[in-house]
């Protein structure tokens, strides 16, 4: 987990336009909004997704940076933190094919610990996130792009429940709990997005 934050901070620093590294690399930004679709134990689901890619353009075809945003799985909010790459097949054309790969972590930092009336503690912890994307870029008159994309996204998270035997339980100390259980939950999604790239 710590290494993800270190890589994220380093990429943010390198990609920041205010940092000069001799001949500065052009900045790349891609924001997208769309829907997550998948199936779980409760049936089919359709959820909201927003993500933004920020980084630098290594060449006309390749960009590298970091990805963050918000994915909503019912009442669960997951914030992706990932490294990402983008590749454009035919950057000289008006209609361009592109692909992307993002690998990182889905954070549940927005989710509070819940204590029920029976003193059961419940909290979520994030896990691995991976996403592959294929899409279409359409050049505008200002040399920016509208995008349409289709992604496969895999998100893992962990739901922990426990009943403490002390007033201030430590999750890493089994002796603080009468019972303690961790469930691994995996969301497999097909994601449809509309975006803007500049």
Automatic annotation (TrEMBL):
Signal peptide start-end: 1-22
Keyword Signal appears in the UniProt entry: yes
Keywords: Signal
Protein name from the UniProt record: Outer membrane protein beta-barrel domain-containing protein
Organism: Cyclobacterium lianum
Organism lineage string: Bacteria, Pseudomonadati, Bacteroidota, Cytophagia, Cytophagales
